[in-house]
Amino acid sequence: MKSIKRRQWFAQAFQRGIPLFISATGALQSTNAALAQMMQLSAHEQAEPLTDTPETSKSAHLAALSSTFLASWRSPRKDSDHYLGLIHADWQAERCRILERVKLNGRPHGLNQLADGSVIAMGLRPGRWLMHWRGSSERYINADNGFAFNGHAAICADRSVIYTTETSVHDQRGYLAVRDARRFEVLERWPTNGIEPHHVLLDRHGRLWIAHGGIRRGAMDQKLDLASMQSKLSCMDAQSGAVIGEWSLADRRLSMRHLALSEVAHTASSPHQVLIGIAMQAEHDSLETRRLAPSLAIFRDDRLDVISTGTDALGYGADISAAPDGGFCVSSNRARKMLWWRPNSDQSLSIIATIEEPYALCKDAKSTNVYLACAWGVARWQPKQAQLLPWPEPMVLDNHWSLMSTTPNA
Q: Among 90, 234, 306, 324, which is most buried by a count of CB atoms within 10 Å?
C-alpha cells in the first residue's frame, strides 16, 4: 500500500509542478516547501484527486492502456554503453519492461520507424553513422565523405525515401540528403540554403520543415563565431527540394533546434494553415541574458512569433511535442521543467512539472496523452491527470524518443 500511495503522491506532485529531487539511489525525496505546495491547486488547472487503491486510481481521462516506446539510453555511469530498444509501459499494472535492445557504436540522437517496422537511429552530431535495426539484424551506414549527419531524419509519406539533415565539413553549408529507405544510398542531395540544419519534419501537404541551428562548428563540434549565427526556419518542397520559404527571428542568438506540428492546425476558414512549435536554445554571451531568453517560438499565419513570457526554461528548450488544445509541450532539463503553451494563451507558458532531468517528449496522435521521459521514469500526462512509472532498471534516456504503439490491455 505504501508503494501505491508513493506513486500517487508522485503523480499529484508532477501534475501540480511540485519540485521533486532524486537521490543517488533513485529514492523519491521532497522538501517541506514541496509538501506545502502539494496542498495548493495549480494556478492553471485543478488536478483530479488520486485515491489510495490501484483499482480506483485510474481516471476515465487516462484509460488503462499499454504503450511501447522507441528509445535510446545508457546506464547512470556517463562512460557506459548506449542502447537502442523498445520500452513497454503497462499503465494498468504500473510497471515498465524492456522488450528488445541492441548495443550501439556510440551515442544516438533522433529515432525513426520505417514502413516495415524496422527503425533507424541517427548518430549524435557531428554524426558519422546511421544505424538500421530490425530484430537481430543491425546495419551501420556511414556518412558520405565530406559530410556529417546532423542528428535527425524524416520519412517520406509513401515511406520510399528518408530525408537526413547533413552538413558539408568543408564549408559548413547545410544539405538535405534524399536516401532510399531500403539501401540508404543517397539519391539526391539538396542545399537547404542555411547553416546547421538540425530537426526536419514532413507535413501532410508534402512540405519539409527544417530548423537551422545556424551555428558554425569546429572539427571537435565546438561552437564558432556565435556573433554571426544564422538560425532560421525553412520550408522545402519534398519532391523537388525547392526552398518555399524562410523565416528568422530578430534575436539572432536564439538557435532553433526542434520542431513539432500541431494536430489542430487546420480550420474551416484556413484549411492549409500550419501551426509549428519550435524549441530554441539561447546562445547569448551573457549568462543572465541566456537564462532570461525565451525557449519557444510559434509559426502560424506565415509568421514566426517568439513566446516572450514564461521564461522558466532558462533559455533552453530541450524537446518539444504537440499537446492538448492544439498547443505544444516543451521540456528543459536545465531548468527541470515541463511547460505547456496553448493557442488561446498567446504569450504565456504554464508549468506542468518541476522534476529531475525532463527531456524526451512525444504525443499520442489518437488521444490527448503526452509522454515525458525524466530521471525517475516515464510520465503520461494530460490536463487534470498524470501517471508515472519507474524505469525497469537504472537508466538515463537520451534526448528523443517516439511512441511506437498504444493498445488496450488484454
A: 234
